[in-house]
Design goal:
alpha+beta; 6 helices; 10 strands; 28% strand
């Protein structure tokens, strides 16, 4: 677009003004044609659409950030939980010691394993507090019986810290198993996820942390953690 006023101030005459006016009108017509081809009727409508698109992009970016943060948190949780699970032999061995002296000597001999276990415990309590629950409980809570699927249920179960869900695990000495979650209120099954490992595994404990559940597995190679099942 030509600034006609500025050009006139520099001495341009009537002929130039007429040409510039016609030129500007052609430019405006061409611009409006582009707007209409793009589905807009005015520059203001285009600006409004751009503003809306920018706001939507900001929202999407914020949502992606939240998802990335959740994924990082889950990765940290799984790392610490797996570290704790791998210390099971040492923790079980400590329970088998009959005297305080024997327990002290045992802990000293396996100092690194207990440091790892205690560090993982501090992380879980700091990040999740009472939400970190691996309590084995009967599948009968407050007089309500949950009818779990028959077959290969392992017999272990865990209740979420808020008391809303019961999680069971089905699996034997095989590379896969299934985590199932039920609502305590009415027994409705809300999750049914199969986990797979690279070796034979057998569940021995269920962890329910927040709204995720994991099976602690004994495998041919040691101890492992199943993929998570989301309760929501």
């Amino acid at each position: 677009m030509v600034d006609i006023t500025a050009k006139k101030a520099k001495g341009k005459g009537k002929g130039y003004e007429k040409w510039a006016t016609l030129h500007n009108l052609k430019q405006m017509a061409a611009t409006m044609s582009i707007y209409e081809e793009s589905g807009f009727s005015s520059p203001e409508e285009l600006e409004a659409a751009l503003a809306a698109a920018s706001a939507e992009l900001s929202n999407v970016h914020a949502e992606l950030k939240a998802v990335e943060s959740t994924l990082r948190e889950k990765k940290d949780l799984q790392k610490q939980l797996l570290a704790y699970i791998k210390t099971k032999p040492a923790r079980d061995g400590l329970k088998a010691q009959k005297t305080e002296k024997a327990r002290k000597n045992y802990r000293e001999q396996r100092k690194i394993e207990f440091i790892i276990a205690e560090a993982a415990t501090r992380f879980l309590m700091l990040m999740y507090g009472k939400e970190a629950s691996n309590r084995k409980q009967e599948i009968d809570r407050q007089g309500k019986v949950i009818n779990v699927e028959s077959g290969d249920e392992s017999g272990i179960a865990a209740v979420s810290a808020d008391g809303q869900y019961i999680v069971t695990c089905a699996g034997g000495d095989s590379p896969s198993g299934t985590l199932r979650a039920y609502q305590v209120s009415d027994g409705t099954k809300v999750a049914d996820e199969t986990y797979t490992m690279d070796t034979n595994c057998k569940p021995y404990e269920i962890w329910v942390i927040g709204h995720s559940a994991y099976a602690a597995l004994g495998t041919d190679d040691g101890y492992a953690l199943s993929q998570a099942v989301d309760l929501l």
